């Protein structure tokens, strides 16, 4: 469990060492932007200390730079194995003393050793109501399946793809005139709302995991 800052009644907590976020991206970074906005307007008491991308051209890197956040590009081609790559990721995150790792459209599978380096301290956002439609293009999978309710999930990352304990979910209705693109856009609005909220919940501490269940009381 993440160490929380001691907070006494009436005392405000501030972003400190236990609220240092590292965000991993591969693409446009709209969820990263939602986190940046939440930190900037005080909804999320945290500091994004590094944004790491596995693609030099990821649009999210520009968003990070515009917000004055340190960026690191770690391209897989420079490494000989997944283990080496993940060890470099871990080293970078440790160098920044990151306390919570947030995957935000990071399109690489992480090894068990990466997950073990940050036990219960890696979050991911997935564009479906897990456990339905894990893997790529969750929104398209849901649309093609014909579900009437779709949504997004924030979960703790375990070695199983999109399989860790669920921190938060949000639903959207699938209308008959929705296209895969319009459905993805509706889901994305919910992603941007619930991911910063869920990060705040996890950083606040006081939660536990029983079996697969993430419990706050
Ligand atoms: C989001 O749909 C997220 O759920 C999925 O990848 C996409 C990333 O989008 N994991 P963005 O880069 O945050 O805009």
Largest sheet: 7 strands, mixed
Structurally, the number of domains stands at 2
Distance between the termini: 14 Å
Radius of gyration: 17 Å
Secondary structural class: alpha/beta
Q: Averaging pLDDT over every residue, what do you get?
A: 92
The stretches of 5 or more residues where confidence is low (pLDDT under 50) are 1-16
As for the CATH topology of the largest domain, it is Rossmann fold
Write the CATH architecture name of the largest domain: 3-Layer(aba) Sandwich
Features:
Rossmann fold; globular; two-stranded antiparallel sheet; 22% strand; binds 5-O-phosphono-beta-D-ribofuranosylamine; 2 domains
Give an overview in words.
With 217 residues, the chain is α/β, with parallel strands linked by helices. The protein has six helices and nine strands, in the order βαβαβαβαβαββαββ. Strand 2, helix 2 (59-66) and strand 3 (71-73) form a beta-alpha-beta unit. The longest helix has 25 residues, at 180-204. It is globular, with a radius of gyration of 17 Å. The two termini are 14 Å apart. Mean pLDDT is 92; it is low at 1-16. The structure holds 5-O-phosphono-beta-D-ribofuranosylamine. Residues 25, 27-31, 60, 104-105, 125-127, 188, 191 line the site of 5-O-phosphono-beta-D-ribofuranosylamine (GRF).
